[in-house]
Amino acid sequence: MSKSRVYVNAYESLSCAGNTAQLMDAAYAARSGITINTSYMPGIPVGLGSFAPDDFFSSLNEIVRQVLDRSDLDNFHDTLLIVGSSVGGIAQSEEIFFRDRSYKNIDPARHAISVISDTLNKAFRFKDSRSISTACTSSANAMMMAQRLLELGAYENVLVVGADALCYTTVCGFHALGVLSPEVCTPFQKERLGMNVAEGIAALLLQTSLKEGSVELCGSGGSSDAFHITNPDPEARGAIASMRNALENAGIKADEIGYVNAHGTGTQANDAVESLAVQTLFKHMPYISSTKAITGHTLGAAGALEAVVSCEVLKRQKIPPQSGLEIAENGEINLPYSTVETQVDYVISNSFAFGGNNTSLVFGAVK
Amino acid sequence: MHLLMMGAVISRHCLRHKAEKFSGVLTDTYNWLCWERIILPEVRDQQYIDHQPPRPVDFINSLSNTAGFYVGQHLGLNGKNLFLYHHGFPVQMALILAQNDLKLKKQRQILVGGVDELLEPVGYTKKFLGICSDLQLGEGSNWLTLRNEKEGALASIDIMPEEIGFKELFALVEGLDSKSRLAFGMRMPPEDVAVFMEHTVCARFDYESHCGYYETVPLYAINRFIEHEKGSLLFIDYFEKRYRVMTLSVFG
After folding, report:
1. CA-based Rg of chain A, rounded to a whole angstrom?
2. Which of helix, strand or coil describes residue B239?
3. Is A111 a catalytic residue?
């Protein structure tokens, strides 16, 4: 069966570091968008990434509108929408509960994961939509599903949206797990304190047609550790399998990867295992950094947001430094301390979630 | 352990037995679930009313992909696990993606499951699901193993990737032979069912009298047909004036 090639032809994002252009400026300048908040959980300082006071759903519509404006489409009526989200409408439900002190006025239809696609469908009338919710790999899995549907010729246009609002449920949950950093997170640092929860929106239009400025989504791969519900396999088998499957799907060798856009949350377990996986798989020591030090961990939106970063790295041929890094825990991986201008043909972007749910995406510069 | 998880646990015990008996367990099996994320009531109340952080295990169990992990761990699956949500047609969406991956030969075997728990209050749940007030709610955990190979298979399934209009659907139903059976999604308006049954020579397959309504109940209908019937089944599902069609053919 002949497969169609898949291209990322338009995109935009919003995070605590701003829109895509602002995010990349911040990433190259190692300037974090995270702020330390002492009132979100009274008495407990936490680093959070928020773009409040903007309304989340207005921002969502605006980001998608910008992608449509940058595309060659007049509308999204022939486009499939795939949403990746872990929070859905929970943040809105929380607002209602804290205002009313009652669950009574919470609209169940606005609480579910599908509230993101429902909102966008109302504004843009997509051909069809579906939502994937696999915690921190949600929108990376949405990208993978989009690639496969496009390859098969089931659609010509798929819009992938990763969107998660900051909500009390997730912040409290991560606090309960003891993985929240009271400071701006420092992925891959020897003595790191944990992660920062953040909100984010990213939308990418994937098409089978090549356009000026296209970046190719060359491959995707996944694996499941099934090792432990919160901790990755310490031998990194799941992470290695995920990246290996993505490389195989892209039809490229490990030594062709010029940059690894790491999952790099800043937690002890993730960064140690991801470092080991990269060290084991990539003998040529490609550059690796995590932009979560700039944007925080946008959970279900992270895969799409970091897909945007990966596309920008390929277009600019410029690798962002590992923000906040002073002394690396693992000296066997190539963490840049400052921006690197170099030829990058392929980027691999990792997303790893609870339950050993791993996804890797390979992007290539169009020559 | 929460009932939601218990459903998956009970089911996967049966599943392992069946998988070992009939096909062996492949460790690269993909594990796809269609489900809805809820915040467990105890977690919700702990956080919102008592202002206490949740117990880590409660927080983890409220995440969508947790069940995929438990199933994967129990069966020793290390293929990708995916949780898919779709308001209206979650089973069809999961099966379409699985069908695509098998066609593209991305996977050799995919395990698709649907897990639903009956949520209280019932009136609230019915409003969310968009079902009429006299339809009884149920809960269930149903699983299918899909492969591209006919050898050793119990049945074949074909999912129409697009929604289908009433006229096309009507023509499809009219063209069925008397050996085929028809089944309807439980949200289907009774007047639509009556129109289809009036214009077909095939008998209706009843699964509804054996279960209450839940979002992933089409998987129950599929499994029940495979277990008790032979021949072809056309399953017409309905949500908000939209129709989707699946065709099942049981071998033997």
Report:
1. 19
2. strand
3. no
Distance CA B23, CA A305 (A): 40
Give whole-number Cα distances, B78 to A275, A358, B71, B147, in Å.
21, 10, 10, 17
Choose the catalytic residue: A136, A167, A185, A218: A136
CA distance A84 to B85: 10
Say if the Cβ atoms of A226 and B125 lie within 8 Å. Answer: no
Element (H, E) at B233: strand B231-239
> Does residue A2 lie in a domain region?
no
Instruction: Tell me: ipTM over 0.95.
Output: no
Contacts of A107 (CB under 8 A, 6+ apart): none
- CATH number of the domain within which A309 lies: 3.40.47.10
Choice among B52-56, B69-73, B175-179 with the minimum mean pLDDT: B52-56
Distance from the Cα of B52 to chain A's closest Cα (Å) equals: 8
Question: Measured at the alpha carbon of residue A74, what is the angle toward residues A301 and A126, in degrees to the nearest 5?
Answer: 50
Domain tally, chain A: 1
DSSP of A262-275 = ----S-HHHHHHHH
Higher local confidence (pLDDT), A228 or B46: A228
Q: How confident is the model at residue B6 (pLDDT cuts 50, 70, 90)?
A: very low
B41 CB within 8 Å of a chain A CB: no
Report yes or no on A47 lying in a domain: yes
pLDDT score at B7: 35
Domain assignment of residue A181, given as a range: 7-365
- Output the average pLDDT for chain A: 94
Report the residue from A98, A108, A355 with minimal CB separation from B68: A355
Read off the pLDDT of residues A283-298 as tens digits, 9 standing for 90 and up: 999 999 999 999 999 9
> Residue A97: pLDDT band by 50, 70, 90 thresholds?
confident
A112 and B103 within 8 Å at the Cβ level: the answer is no
Q: Is A355 on the interface with B (CB under 8 A)?
A: yes
B91 pLDDT higher than 70? yes
Distance from CA of A131 to the nearest CA of B (A): 5
Q: Quickly state the pLDDT bin for B32 (edges 50, 70, 90).
A: low
Active site residue A136: yes
List the single range of A152-166, A351-365, B104-118 with lowest mean pLDDT.
B104-118
- Whether A77 is catalytic is no
pLDDT surpassing 80 at residue B47? no
d(CA A289, CA A259): 8
Q: Which of A167, A218, A297, A311 is catalytic?
A: A297
Per CB-CB distance under 8 Å, the chain A contacts of B62 are 169, 173
Please give the single-letter amino acid code of residue B95: L
B72, B85, B86: residue with CB nearest A226: B72
Going from the C-alpha of B230 to that of each of A40, B23, B233, the distances in angstroms are 59, 21, 9
Residue B11 pLDDT level (bands cut at 50, 70, 90): very low
Q: Tell me the shortest Cα–Cα distance from B67 to chain A, in angstroms.
A: 9
The CATH superfamily assigned to B3-152 is Thiolase/Chalcone synthase (3.40.47.10)
